[in-house]
Design a protein that fits this description.
Elements lengths: L1 H17 L33 E2 L11 E6 L5 E5 L4 E5 L23 E5 L9 E3 L13 E3 L3 E5 L2 E6 L2 E6 L4 E5 L3 E4 L1
Parallel strand pairs: 1-8, 2-7
Antiparallel strand pairs: 2-3, 3-4, 4-5, 5-6, 8-9, 9-10, 10-11, 11-12
């Protein structure tokens, strides 16, 4: 009887754990679960015609970084001109979209920091998730960029719609992050 019980338990484990892998597109080894996509209707598609441009110096730290809180939402963004990138981020506990599966080489938090480069780097995509071990920037001293406002710090431009920020580079790539959604367009 114990062999039969062990066989049933083993079969149950194989069936339940087998559902965690997805066959690779090329028919090779299974890969991680696919990345869930949040509701894209919540992603700003273009700045409103009546957008208010703000003075970027209001958001400057005096050293080439411009940080802002995203409207009334929990996200914040930092334009780091000296690093040719923007990082938008939020605490994991504030996001209500499905978790993003982390790559095998990421032992930190994943899916809550997005990066947009000014140009495509040799190492990868222009817009990407970041494997984070902490905050890129402390938002506690950042000013709020209100909904309906835009900040321009060439080669970047960001605007806020409700509680979501969308940031574009001059090449047309962009990213968006808010409590309920994210989007990457490298």
């Amino acid at each position: 009887m114990s062999r039969l019980l062990a066989a049933i338990v083993g079969l149950g484990l194989v069936i339940s754990l087998g559902g965690c892998a997805v066959p690779a597109a090329d028919g090779g080894s299974p890969t991680a679960l696919p990345t869930p996509t949040p509701d894209q209707s919540l992603v700003p598609t273009q700045a409103p015609a009546t957008i208010a441009d703000v003075d970027p110096e209001t958001y400057s730290d005096g050293f080439g970084w411009y940080s802002f809180k995203v409207g009334d939402g929990p996200a914040w963004c930092t334009i780091a001109t000296d690093m040719n990138q923007i990082i938008c981020e939020q605490n994991e506990a504030t996001a209500v979209y499905a978790p993003i599966p982390a790559p095998a080489d990421c032992s930190g938090s994943y899916g809550y920091q997005l990066r947009l480069w000014s140009t495509t780097p040799a190492s990868g995509a222009t817009a990407e998730f970041v494997c984070a071990t902490g905050q890129f920037q402390d938002p506690s001293q950042s000013q709020v960029l209100p909904s309906g406002s835009r900040i321009n710090v060439p080669p970047f431009s960001c605007y806020v719609q409700d509680i979501t920020a969308r940031c574009d580079n001059e090449s047309g790539q962009w990213m968006a992050l808010g409590r309920q959604t994210w989007s990457l367009h490298p």
